[in-house]
Amino acid sequence: MTPKEKAEKLLSEYLIFFPEFRNDLEYDYNIESAKTCALIAVDEILKEYWSHDTKRRDWWKEVKQEIEKL
Known about the structure:
Number of domains: 1
Shape: elongated
């Protein structure tokens, strides 16, 4: 899975699992809420990799960048 695919998957999972993020009338707000949740999750993962597996850490950094682009 590419970092972009992972970013899209994380975002879609937050939109699916949190009904309050699926209100069509507030679509932009909901995407931003889902992005915020996904970024928090990725930041927590990055904290775990801060000094260990640099390849995985770099991959997760790319995922974070892709989430920010969405």
